[in-house]
Design goal:
The complex is a heterodimer of chains A (about 550) and B (about 400). Chain A has about 550 residues and is of the alpha/beta class. In chain A, about 30% of the residues lie in helices and about 25% in strands. In chain A, helix 2 packs parallel to helix 9 (about 315-335), helix 4 crosses helix 5 (about 150-155) and helix 6 packs parallel to helix 7 (about 210-215). Chain B has about 400 residues and is of the alpha/beta class. In chain B, about 25% of the residues lie in helices and about 25% in strands. Chain B has helices at about 15-25, 60-70, 110-115, 145-150, 200-210, 250-265, 285-295, 345-350, 390-405; strands at about 5-10, 30, 75, 80-90, 90-95, 100, 125, 135, 160, 165-170, 175, 180, 200, 225-235, 270, 295, 305, 310-320, 325-330, 330-335, 340, 375-380. In chain B, the strands form seven sheets. Chain B has a five-stranded parallel sheet with strand order 3-2-1-11-22, with helices on one face. In chain B, strands 13-20-14-15-16 form a five-stranded parallel sheet. Chain B folds into two domains: about 5-100 and about 165-180 and about 340-405, FAD/NAD(P)-binding domain; about 185-335, 3-Layer(bba) Sandwich (FAD/NAD(P)-binding domain). The chains are: A alpha/beta (about 550), B alpha/beta (about 400). The complex binds flavin-adenine dinucleotide (FAD) and iron/sulfur cluster (3 copies). One iron/sulfur cluster binds near residues 236, 250, 277 and 337 of chain B.
Chain lengths: ~550, ~400
């Protein structure tokens, strides 16, 4: 470490209170775990939290029991009927504003845990059916099977029950498990029959294939179809028909009850929570992108975590695994409330004109401002996007200063090579291409004799100046290597790099340097052979001239 | 408080993640790995990106390996197994290190041994640049040439003795992360795996992609043009008694198919399946694009036989047509799944942690799949049952959390 960097090591204080948003099973479990470990908790709940949750392991009373435990827990401050409306600050020092029972409430927290639930609704309408005593949703069937009167109603009348699954939406193992459980219960009742019309059986979860077989062994019949069968509902009468190509005929059934699948989707709230907390919204309304650079409960922002149904369709046991993982991360971040951190990026207060470019472009929301821009050392990931975007050149990374980078480029361009070999400078992201490039060397792949690799923290740190400098200093070719779209640790570093390359192309055109001397490529850390191929191809191309 | 010691058995993604999390929490970790390399099965997988990352997770294994070797609190024991274990407050263990190994203190990764023994299988090369040493001795391939092998290394790093060496350690808790065994496709005799060169399994597929960068036919190294994937090979198979879905073979087959098709749109790809399992949050969208580019046939083929030019005929019963059918392909990929590690039996006896009917480690608590009935013994990853890399990592984090709680570090 240089002395300069040592100077930027500082001790910071972090608020130990953790805010948990969402008071369903997972949220309450998170609150309880945090409180037990000495972290005061703010639990923001809404009226219908926990309305849908996986009861397969706790039974119907599980939620109530946990609710009582949480209510009796001193360090848990429950804010009922609360909606988050504003969040400012950085890890260790967030200020959250809630509307709680029509009052504005402001709270301080060191970390935030989002624990929204999944929500479920019947899909009867997609099949064109009208709910009635003989057309029921999966939940309704489950309550029937759980009650004595319901069991009698089905069992004594030796009912035939048909299930429709996987035609209204793709489905998932969590729903499949509920179907398979219900089927098992029905076929265990003397004289009852279950027919399941299903698209893809989603059995990718412990125990489901066995459960499926158990049902079939007890007489359940499965029809696997690509499209939904025709279902005709005539008052109480039901008829299900589909064409069977094997027997070349229609197969028709008149069940007593049709059970229709349900949806299981992300909480609507996620959209506004993502916006307020400045975290990425992922596919299908779930929180955080599926970025493999992060542990599953982490988000693009340090100090904001997502657990359970807020991030993925998952049942209770996996949601609780998230809670345990979250505790590890909160301990690492907040510990006992004090921490020594080294600044990865610093703002030159003389140069900063608070244009707030950096505030807007930081993918980790690590920047706030007093009278100048300030970077939170606890939140900054050192990607350098801000440093490259800042119009005043007011930001420097401690490990990759512009001065160091410039001399590194000069050295690379001046390095001795075999006379005829073209000089190629590759700017490689340390998370992907740099790893692949070092591996390519170690595994003795053929590489250009004039290749020079320059490590960068993220492709988003490649200034247009770096590229032009490299060419001016004597490189025959420059290549910028970033992570694949969707695999950038800083989410948008590769996009910024791409924009800058396009800018550079325009500049090259102006000065009359051929376009093929600059290239952009994406790679993953495990792509050593592709790395070799890309740089060799470039060498060939510039050698041809 | 004095620093606690923990033993992690198995250096795959699950073991590495648990070890790293515990090391970050300030514990001393002994990571015991039977083979010569950390990383487990998943370190050999290739990137499956198309124009964008498809979240296969392979590169996160690279990253975790880097974390582990850079961590100061993890002692890595390669080519090592647990010989004996005794309860004594914590656990007292004897570790057995293979008689033949490469000494990391002396090896410079020059690769001389590997080059010299290329083709013999005696020296294996790791898959990651972060495997150190990058080379390992395969004891089962070793014959009488021990002396010759020893003298090949200019640094004197190759150590071969007559007997394994033993060392004693004591720990406060144990995590079993011994992983899985891939299904042996030879057991599905009618598919001709190992008899027909162009019938490959899931792991071969990764190796081929790594070596060539495209799907080459093992028979001649030429790019395959018409490729079949057969799903559920060894999994969901009543005849074999394997009543579980391996959970990863639909995702890896679909992602590989999408990625090779992206690189070469002329490829003709067919997936034979029973049911397609989800790949992640973006599955519904991803599946639709797959359907546009890949032919899906809902039928598991009956058998495969070779025709001219090392091509293969697949015979099946086409359920959508209701008739028998036959079609030829250049390359057939058997999507082999996750089976229990045969070592589980011995580990289970050593640790007094029981196995389930399928041979995976049984969890004692439905809500916490890392807990065993044995005190201070936890499970993580595919040792407990089939799962993806990401799911293995979550479970590994949970196991680490369980250990901290057991040791009183957390509550
Ligand atoms: C063909 C194939 C393709 C796949 N593709 C993907 C994919 O693209 N994406 C994905 O998410 N998942 C994929 N998977 C699943 C993935 O391989 C697993 O999720 C992952 O490897 C599980 O990690 P693990 O640590 O539990 O086990 P392993 O990877 O099996 O690691 C276990 C480690 O323990 C060691 N070990 C075993 N026994 C002992 C012992 N007795 N003592 C000491 N050490 C021992 C082993 O040598 C090994 O290093 C795929 C699986 C297969 C079969
Ligand atoms: S270096 Fe990256 S993470 Fe740090 S403040 Fe700048 S943009 Fe944000
Ligand atoms: S496709 Fe897989 S290996 Fe490639 S970048 Fe994405 S997660 Fe990493
Ligand atoms: S994941 Fe797909 S191929 Fe693998 S066992 Fe399950 S259904 Fe079969």
């Amino acid at each position: 470490m240089t002395t300069k960097q040592q100077n930027q090591v500082e001790k910071i204080h972090l608020e130990t209170t953790v805010a948990v948003i969402g008071g369903g099973y997972t949220g309450m479990a998170a609150a309880k775990t945090l409180a037990q470990n000495g972290y005061p908790v703010i639990l923001a709940r809404q009226e219908n939290d926990g309305a849908w949750h996986d009861t397969s392991l706790t039974g119907l009373d599980g939620l109530k029991t946990l609710e009582n435990q949480v209510a009796d827990n001193g360090p848990i401050d429950i804010l009922s009927q609360s909606t988050l409306i504003e969040a400012v600050g950085v890890p260790g020092d967030f200020t959250l504003t809630f509307m709680s029972e029509d009052r504005r409430v402001e709270k301080k927290a060191g970390a935030v845990v989002v624990a929204t639930d999944l929500s479920s609704s019947p899909l009867t309408f997609i099949y064109g059916l009208t709910p009635c005593a003989s057309v029921v949703s999966l939940s309704e069937l489950e309550s029937l099977l759980a009650s004595e009167t319901g069991q009698k109603e089905i069992g004594d009348k030796k009912k035939t029950i048909a299930f429709l699954v996987g035609f209204a939406h793709e489905g998932n193992p969590l729903l499949m498990q509920r179907v398979l459980e219900s089927v098992r219960k029905i076929v265990e009742m003397d004289g009852c029959t279950a027919y399941v019309y299903v698209n893809n059986l989603k059995v990718a979860e412990d125990g489901l294939e066995r459960l499926y077989k158990q049902g079939r062994d007890n007489g359940a019949i499965y029809f696997k179809l690509q499209t939904a069968p025709t279902v005709i509902q005539n008052n109480g009468d039901l008829r299900i028909t589909f064409y069977d190509p094997v027997i070349r005929n229609n197969i028709e059934l008149s069940p007593d009850i049709v059970v229709v699948e349900e949806s299981l989707v992300a909480d609507q709230q996620n959209i506004s929570l993502a916006e307020i907390l400045r975290i990425d919204l992922g596919p299908a309304g779930f929180l955080q992108k599926e970025n493999v650079h992060r542990l599953p409960v982490n988000t693009n922002r340090e100090g904001i975590f997502v657990v359970g149904g807020g991030r993925e369709i998952q049942g209770l046991s996996k949601s609780l695994a998230d809670v345990d993982n979250m505790l590890l991360q909160v301990r690492q971040l907040i510990g006992g409330g004090e921490k020594t951190v080294a600044a990865k990026a610093v703002v030159d207060r003389e140069k900063c004109t608070i244009c707030l470019t950096c505030y807007r472009c930081c993918p980790h929301a690590a920047i706030y401002w007093d009278d100048k821009a300030v970077i939170s050392p606890a939140a900054c990931q050192g990607c350098g996007i801000c440093a490259s975007e800042c119009p005043m050149d007011a930001i420097q990374l401690t490990d990759f200063t512009d001065t160091e980078m410039t001399s590194r480029i000069r050295e690379a361009a001046a390095a001795e090579t075999k006379a005829a070999a073209p000089k190629i400078i590759a700017f490689c992201c340390q998370n992907s291409a740099f790893e692949a490039g070092t591996a390519a060397g170690l595994f003795h792949y053929d590489l250009p004799a004039g290749l020079q690799i320059i490590k960068i923290p993220c492709a988003g740190k490649v200034d247009i100046n770096y590229i032009l400098n490299a060419l001016v200093e004597g490189a025959d070719g420059v290549i910028v290597m970033a992570c694949h779209t969707g695999n950038c640790k800083s989410e948008s570093g590769n996009t910024y790099a791409k924009w800058r390359i396009n800018d550079a192309y325009r500049k090259l055109e102006q000065i009359g340097i051929p376009k093929n001397r600059l290239e952009f490529a994406t790679l993953a850390s495990n792509m050593a052979s592709d790395f070799a191929r890309i740089v060799i191809d470039m060498e060939k191309r510039i050698s041809q001239k | 408080m004095e620093t606690k010691n923990v033993l992690v058995i198995g250096g795959g993604i699950a073991g590495m993640t648990t070890a790293f999390e515990l090391a970050e929490a300030g514990l001393n970790v002994h990571l015991v790995e039977k083979s010569g390399f950390l990383g487990g099965h998943a370190i050999q997988y290739t990137c499956k990106a198309t124009a964008e990352c498809l979240q296969c997770g392979a590169c996160s294994v690279e990253k975790m390996l880097k974390n582990v070797i850079e961590s100061g609190n993890i002692t890595i024991h390669l080519s090592t197994e647990v010989e004996t274990i005794e309860r004594s407050g914590g656990y007292a263990l004897t570790l057995k290190k293979s008689a033949a190994y490469i000494d990391p203190a002396k090896c410079t990764n020059c690769g001389v041994c590997y080059e010299k023994y290329k083709g013999t299988g005696i020296i294996a090369q790791g898959y990651s640049k972060n495997n150190f040493p990058l080379y390992a001795i395969c004891p089962e391939k070793l014959n009488n040439d021990a002396a010759a092998l020893k003298s090949v290394c200019p640094e004197g790093a190759i150590s071969i003795s007559d007997a394994p060496s033993f060392c004693q350690i004591s720990v406060d808790a144990v995590i079993i992360a011994s992983g899985f065994a891939p299904f042996d496709a030879r057991r599905k005799g009618t598919y001709g795996y190992s008899r027909f060169p162009n019938v490959v399994n899931g792991l071969d597929l990764e190796r081929i992609k790594r070596q060539y960068g495209y799907l080459a036919r093992p028979s001649d190294g030429q790019p395959a043009k018409k490729i079949a994937f057969i799903q559920c090979v060894g999994s969901r198979d009543e005849q074999l008694g394997n009543l579980w879905c391996s959970q990863v073979c639909c995702p890896y087959a679909l992602r590989t198919a999408a990625s090779v098709k992206h690189k070469n749109p002329d490829l003709d790809l067919t997936v034979f399946y029973m049911d397609i399992q989800n790949t992640g949050k973006s599955f519904p969208v991803f599946y639709e694009t797959c359907k546009d580019n890949i032919r899906f046939i809902r039928s598991i083929p009956v058998d495969i036989f070779p025709i001219e030019n090392d091509c293969l005929n697949i015979r099946l019963f086409d359920e959508s047509e209701g008739t028998p059918a036959m079609e030829s392909f250049d390359l057939v990929v058997l999507s082999t799944g996750i089976m229990p590690n045969p070592d589980n039996q011995k580990l289970s006896e050593q640790m007094a942690a029981s196995l389930d009917t399928d041979g995976f480690f049984k969890h004692a608590d439905g809500l916490d799949r890392t807990a065993t009935a044995a005190e201070g013994v936890f499970i993580a990853g595919t040792a407990q049952g089939p799962k993806t890399i990401a799911a293995s990592m979550v479970q590994a984090g949970q196991a680490a959390s369980g250990v901290l709680k057991y040791l009183g570090v957390t509550k």
